[in-house]
Each structure stands twice: as C-alpha cells, then as structure tokens.
C-alpha cells in the first residue's frame, strides 16, 4: 500500500492529461517525463521488495530470478523479433491480422506466467507492451484495433466489478470523525500523509527550478493523481487477502475522490488559453525598423501525427550540424536533408534549425505556438490544407486535420501567422533572367501593414519585383488606421524618385478605386496571370467596399474574403485555368491467509476461492463469496498452504487465458497445416477442427483429467463459451455492416434467379415429401423439421463471403455472381424466417411476435439508419469517427440481442439486422470493421466454435443407418444438398455460364459454415433439437466445409481466368487500327498525367482511340467488391458517385472540349487492395483492351525534385498486373507535363530507346502511333553492342530489323506527298555501346533534350547496354533502362513510359 500510494503511474497521468487537453502543454510534458521516471523507480523498488516479502528467502530469490528471466525474454527475444517483422513488412501496407492475434496470445501467456508466480498479472502485460516498438506500424495498429473495444466495453466492466466489491458504509464513520477502529484510522492517515508529502515535494522542486508558482501547484496536483492502475493493484491484493474489505474500500473510495477533486482543481487553476500569451509585440511591421532586419533565422517544424503512443515529442535536429543520415528519425529525413542542402549550397546566409513534432492532430497547434514563443519567432508560415496536382488544375488532397490546426494557430499564436497556398513554384528564376513578380493587395488595416512589411522585405532581394495594389473606396473619410496606412504607403508612393533604396526602386505602386466586390473580382481576374505570388492580409477587405457583396461567399474563414470568392465564384481560392499564383495571408501491515492455523476443514476456503460457494463439513454451513477470487497465489500455493491449495488453472482468470491459448494454438496449427499442403480451407473449418480435437481429447482422457477441469469447471460456469457467444454476436453484426442489400437491385438476372431457386426449391420439395408421408411414419416432428429444412436450404451471405475471401475468389467474376446470389438467398431466407412465425403456431401470440419483429425493423431502418446518416453529415471530412459513436453502436448491439432473446428468437439475428441498418463503407462501417474485427475474429470467435463442438457427441454417426431418427436427419441433409447443388448448377448453365464454372458455382452455393452452426446451437439450447440431431448436423457442417473447398480448388484454376486466346498488343496492330486502352487512376494527381498522355496519342476516324478509365478505390468496411460503370459520355455534371466525381468530370471535360474524337467510358472499382489486379485484368479482357496504362507508385513534388509519396500498395498492384494481364501494359512515370505545346508552337519531343526484343518493339509501336500526331517529334535511339556483327541471326533480330526499317527510311530525303506523317517527323539515331557505363553517360548527355522517354520493360536485358548496371536496378517492374531514367539521380525530370508486351496468350 505504501508503494502504490507513493507511485505516480505514467499511464494514469497520460490519460488525465489527454482528458484535460494538456498533454501538449509545457506543464503536461514535464508531468509525463516525471511520471515515466516515477514509474520506472516504482518498478525497480517492486523488484527489490519481492524477495523481502517472502517468509523464505529461497522462494523470494527464486521469484526474483523468474521475473528477471521474463524481462530478459521480452527485451532480448521478443523485441528483436518485432523489429525483424517491421523490416520485412512492405512499406505502406497494413500490419497483417496474424501478428495482431499473436500479440494477444503473448499477452495471455505473460499474464499466465505472472499468475503462476503469484504476482500482479497485468504487470507482465505492461512489460510486454514496453517491449513492443511504439508508433507505426505495430504499435499504432494495436492501439487502433484494440483500444476502442476494450476501453468502451471491457474496461467499464472491470471498473464496475471493482466498485461492487467496495463497502460504502466504511466511510460513514470517517466522514463523521467517529473512527473507533484503529486500522481504519491508520489507513486514512497514511493515505492523507502520502498525498500531502507528494503534493509538497512535487511543488517545491519545480519552484527551485524557476517554474512559476501556479504551474508548480498544477504539476504537483497532476503528480498526485490516482486512477485505474492503483485500483487494479488493490483489487489483486484484495483477491489474495493481503487487504481486508474495509481497507480495500477506503483505498478505492479515496482514489475516486482523488480523481474527482484533482481534476476540478487543475481546471480551476490552469487556463490553457493563456499559455502562449506574449508580453511584447512580435510583428513584421516592428521588425522592419530594427537593426537586424537583414538577418533571417528559420525554424523548420516537421509535424507528424502521433500514433500508438501517449507522449508527444519535440525533437531538435540541429540541421546546420548534421551530416547526411546522422542522428535523425527516418520520418523526418527528407525534410532535414532538403533544408540542409538548401542551407549549404543555395543560401548559406540563412540560419536554419529543424525540429520534428510528434503529436495528436488535435493538439499540434500547442507545439507550434510553444516553439514560436520559446524562439521569439516573428512569423509562423503554415501550409494550406489543400494540395494541387502537378499541373495545378485539380485538388489532390483536402485535409481537414491541417485546416483545424491552422485555425487554432491563428487563434492563439504569439506572433504573426501566414498561410501559404502554393500552386506555382515561388522561386527566383535566375536561369532565365526573369524576375519573381510579387503583388500585395492593400486595402487597409493591421493585417495589410503586416503583409506589406513582409513584401517589402522580399523586394530587397535581387530579381524580385514588387507591385502594391491599393484598393480605395471613393468618398470614405480617413480614421486612425487609414492614417497609419498612409504612413506605410508614403514611401511607396514616392518610389519612382531617384536615390531610393533598392526595395523602393523595384517597387511599383498602383491605386484603383473600387465600387464593390464585383469590381474587385474583375480587377483581380484581369491581372491573375501577371504575378507569381499574391500577398494579402487575412482581414483584407472586411467592412470595405472592395468586398461588398462577396462576404457570404467566403468558404475558408482563415484566408479572409479577398482570397476566397465573390458573387461569381472564387477570386484567388480556386484553381482557375488562367491563374497559377500563390497567396500568403498573414494576420495579425495486513493479516494474510497464510497466518491462519490450517485445520481439517480448510478445503471449504479453497472451494469458495474458485467456485464461489462451499459447504463446511463440521457444521454443514454454506458460504458464498460474490464475486469469487480471480487470480491464484502462484505455483507454490500448495507449498505455502501445505498441500491444500488450488492449481493455477483452477482460478477463473488463468483458466480463461489458458483456454484462449489452447484454442488459438490448435486452430492456427490446422490453418498452417492446410496452407502448407496447398489447400485453401476456410479458417472457420480450422476453428471447428480445433474444437473437435478438444472433444476427442476430452472423451479419451476421462472425467477427472486436467482437460476436463480446464474446459468444464465444477461450477458449470462456461466463461469461455459466454465470451465466444458475445464474439459471435459482434461477428454477425459486422457481417451485416459489410453487406450492401442494395446490391440485390443491381444483381444479374442469373444471380437473382439462382438465389431464389436455391432456397425455394429445396424447401418446396422437403415440405411435399413431409406432407405426403403418413403421420405415423414421420420420424421427425414438425418442430425440428421446419427449422432444419429452412437452414439446410439457406445459403448464408456471410458464410459465402468468408469462403470466397479464404479461397481468394471474391474478386473473380464467378465470385461476384456467387456473392450476389448468396445475398438474394439470404434476404429470401430472412423473409421465410419471419413468415414462419405465424405459420408455425397461428395464435394471437404469434401475430404479436410478428408485430414486435416489425417494430424492431422499423426502429432499425426508420430511426437508427437516418441518425447514422446525420452523424456522417456532421462529421468533418478527413477526421475519424469519434469513439462515443462506436461505444453507442456496440451498446445498441447488446440491446438488440437482448430484445430478440426476450422474444425467444435467435439473438444474433437482431445484431445482424442492426448491422444492415448501419451505412457500410467509410466512415462508420469501415471504422467499426477496423476496430472490432481483428480482436474478435482472432481470439474470441474461436471460443464460440470450440464450445459448440464440445457439445457434439462424436459417436452419433455410428448408428446412422440403423437408428430411424438419425437416418432421417442424415437423409434430409443429403437430399437438400443434392437439390441445392442441382438447381445452382442448372440455372447458371442455362444462362450460358460454362459447365465447369457452373459446377464451381453450385459448390459455393452449397457451402455451410458458422451461421448454420450458430442457429443449430441456439435450437439445441432451446430444446428444439436433440443432442443426436445436433451432433449429426454439426458434423455434416464440418465435412461440408472440408470437402467443398478442396473440390473447388481441384476444379477451379484462378491463374487461367484471364487467359486470352488471341494476341492483343500494339506491335501486331496496323497503324490505322482501333486502339483500346485501359487507364487506371488511384489518386487525383494521376488524372492530369493520363489525360495529357491520351491527348498526345494519335486518333482519327481511320485510327480511333477508345479509352476505358478505371478509378481504383480501396474497399473498406464491406465484403462485396463493386465495379460501377458511369458511362461518362452520357453523364451530366454532378452525377455519379462522390468518390469518383473528380475523375468523371475531368474526363468528361476532356472529351467535350479538348478531344472529342476519343471515345471515353469511365468505371469505378471498389476492391480490396490485394485483389485490384483481378478487376483491372477482368475489365481489360472483357473490353478487348490492347494496352493497360498504370501510374507509377511514386509521386513527385510540384517542382519534381523530391518524392512526395511512395505507395507500396500501388507497386504491388503494378507487379501483379504485369504478371497476369491479358494484353500489353505500360507504367507511366510523370515528372514532366506530357502535352502538345501548341500555345508556344513547340513540338512534344519523344525519344524511344531501342535495344531489341518484344517489349522494345511494343514501345516503338506506341511511339510511332504518337508520331502521327501533330506537333509530336519522335527520335528512335538504337543502342548497338560495339564490335558485334549487325547481321540478323535470330527471329527476334529479324523482327527488330523489320520494325526499324521505316525509322531508317525517315533519315533519307523524301518529299513525296504520300509519305506518312510519322516517317516525316521521325529521327533515327544509332549508337555503339561498350557497357552500362557508356549507356549511362549517353542518356545523361541527352537528358534535357526530350519531354518523354519510351522504353521496353526488358530493354537491355542480357545486352552490353546494361552490363555492369543490372545490380543497381531498384524497381524490377521498370527494367534496367527504365529504372535508370526514373531514378531521382537522373539529371532531367523527364517523364518515362515503360511498356511490356502481352505475356499470357493461350496456344
């Protein structure tokens, strides 16, 4: 007790500061650091006290060795393994679920280990958590997937259970100062004494370190806070009888009072709004008059969102002292190196210091303002929350998080603030001897004077020309601010006088009289293209004639009116075709059990410890304890209590943990075994087999074995089974969330007909057989027959979705049809279930039940669903769903299950229907799936399947042929399975589906799994089914889930689904033939690059170009992948899905106004990232596409000098498309605008690097087609091995010669009128190459001569042109030459197109 009262828990302090919003404040950071040190000292003292607390020093030392061994394993074995996992993980890809499962298993193992030592189990989990690397990818993934579930549901249960054990009456005497018990008085006195000592020490020491008094008091209150960590330790001590109930109650209630009053006191004393209060003016206007005005000091702050950590961090990198790669975190390396390069080689006179801030997105403004205050900063420059594409015509990203941070910085900054909206490279263009043209829009006020002061400082720089545009409202009298404005402008008005300073010589002053906002809009639009940078004050034009009529159109308050819009639309805030400028708007001693004498009746004490009740033999008294003891006294309990103790697994918490581990290891064993055997068996089958193995072990070992004690404790409380049943409720709820029932309306006719027939036909046949059979010969009663017939005829969408996902078929054409048919079948089955209620017992109660079900459905779809849509509309875009909504939805799941349980119906059905009412996909549906599925599916759900299998009698199959009831059940199962199989095969076959696919489809529709098993378990629990019937049904499901996936894997070969039976490549096409292309879009910045490439491609009536545009969207919170056809050419503005609106409208605009001769059709693919290649290849095969064009996985900055994003997901997708595409594939690396430069009468210069081979011939074919376009000049550079014979010796060389013959003729003089255009505009060059170094030097020498390089993927393979540089190839998908051209080290920023000819052709 002394140790815990003296300790300051880091976890509690972190949670308190987050709740108070102080975790990013200076006081909060000191408190977190102090709490971390306190925590470590406390743990050290705990380890020292362990051997001293035991009566035998031998046991104490042994326990200490065990603890140290555990710590060694955790930090010397587990932590290095985790770093290996992180290194092996592909960057940008999420952590695999299997690692999450194993982490949870490790938590259970550590708790069991510490339980076996008789120590606080949570301490082992805490040590394990310290060993796991915090932050992304592992730490943040664990926090994201587990925190909401345990913090919202499980942790409140723990706290409630703790408070139930408390005796509230113990405080009556204390509050009235009537303390007759010396022990109570001692406990209260100790608690108060330690509290006052902690407050005093925590206040005095910071005062000695010059901390202000008020902040020292706040820090001392924070350090004295108590919470859940202390409560949990006291509960553990109370469970081991180290504390009596009175002492435990006093301690718990003192913690409750502590957490209440300290929070109120801290809020009263600490005002966070005043923490950045500045007592002197820090503005540019004042700085311009100081002597050090020519010096510039820049503090660079890289903001990183805090993930998987509690402690915000501010790191100083000292850029000017750093070497490359030293002392920096990887996440800030680009920032540090870029500014270091700028400081060393560009502008050494600027003093630069770089920092990295890792903080929660909602508190980043605190770090920004704190650093500005600490460094006496004059101006903070923030980036705008919107990012534009490379050609600045479309918005790539729109981050509400950044906008939220900007707003808060503007509110509390201790100095001036500027927001930079960059759509033009703000740089002194010295190479072209052009000035940087800056324009200040001046209306009046302090923000304008600040903007003017910054602009005048820029004007002192060489090659910078400043224009001050003063907007004057006619007929207005001058006030104080106007007089100040005149003083600031006086020097500018006289700027044309000789002898002025440099900034006045390069300054132009203009003055315009403005009537209203419309005139301002027209004026600014007329001069939009004349300047590179606009600088305005944030309050520019407020209450002024210049913005009259435009104030209500301001979209972003943080930019002010002038930057954002007038009555006709945005002035400077939207990407107009004639404007590429930028804006900077700156604004302003207990008795233990071991001490008792042990008598003959001591066993009843230990029975009560686990079972919660016991009978004393001496007098027959019955004693109960509520709640019962959870944790053990350790493996040496029997030694301490002289052989009378319980084993570790006989206590509830270790028992639950051991069962979880046992089940997990078993189902993982089967899952890994099947994968190693090459069998794609669903995970549910492995879980059922794990339960079956436990059933067999239980049968073999007998009733008094350890397995019996583990799985079926004496008191019959099945805790793992209850937890597993809760897990199933969550699982089926999530399946409802993932299901999009609107898909029924979009399903193909064969899917709809099959879905209806596969359910209805077996039911009709089963009912006819039952009705035709005489009553006396019916071996099954109507009560079990109806549910059995319905469930065997039903095809569960949830089961089929999981089966297809495990078989990797959910993105195939066959999988899509199966999902649609299963969805229809599920809805029909639910309808039959509801209709079965009044038919089964036509009484008033049955119709009342039907009304109650209808009422529930009305509440779900007429109340809950609209509320969910309102929540979505109110949520700020880009921000995650608040935790309170997740907790509320989980509570509704529990309420739904209780409601259906009260109706005596299947409870999980209520959860499923509620899931259907939740909008699927982002933001709510995907958030629920992400936070709940991993934890639930990996650990909790297997408990449900195992407990179901343990209720099965394996011997029930022995006499199936002799027992009439068992035979009837088995016959019904076989009959319905054959009927479903036949119907599901015949109907698709009649719809022209191939026979093999029809057979596979019928097998999928006949699959049974967890949904059927859960319904049978409910029927068995309700006494509708006997144990023999239940056992036969369950074992039939196990056989079904084993045999059907094996049969599907044997019949269906997914590698042949995209096999093409004809050649589809550019090399065999005639120049006048139709070219069909499939263009893939991931992000908005890919749109302009693809459009520019299409515009540069040749198209005419004789040689048409058809383009299919596929927008790829990652599937979130759904089971069903979707492919939507938008028909761009028929769409009007604003139609189509929101997530593809930019793509649709951009290509529609391109088709209508730029290039109407190109036929365009747009699609949206919503699919899992690992299976997007299936949709791409399927669409290419279906549309007979010749060329697929993919974007490269790297994206460059606006000036194309640095890499902005590097998506491993896109790279993985490109690899898979290259492997299985049914046509040719091109990967476009855009770092230069590939566009016909008709405005400047310049040709687009294209260069093909030709070495030889089919990919090079494909690249040449595409380039020759481009050369037929006007203003496109083609150069073919052939690399020939030096010293080799030029005679053609093989088939490939002959084809190369044929392809190059036309290019060779282009160098010959030819003025005949019939000569094709591509021959006239083609230049053929030939260069002898010795090795790769020669190739490198040659390409570098011509780097700036071309706008686009086109190469084959295998260009230069096994050729002298790449000898010596093959090992330097970073990206295999680009080939050696393509990788060299696309590397950041290549001097030019020219775009590259890498082409691969069709690989998969069936002979």
Summarize the structure.
The protein has 1403 residues and is an alpha/beta fold.
What does this structure look like?
This protein has 1403 residues and is an alpha/beta fold. The strands form 7 sheets. An 11-stranded mixed sheet has the order 17-18-16-15-19-22-27-26-23-24-25, sandwiched between helices. The radius of gyration is 37 Å and the shape is globular. It comes from Brassica napus (Rape). This is Cation/H+ exchanger domain-containing protein. The chain crosses the membrane at residues 30-50, 56-78, 99-128, 148-164, 185-209, 221-243, 250-270, 656-674, 686-702, 717-734, 755-772, 784-804, 816-837, 843-864, 885-901, 935-954, 966-987, 999-1018, 1030-1052. Keywords: Ion transport, Membrane, Potassium, Potassium transport, Transmembrane, Transmembrane helix, Transport.
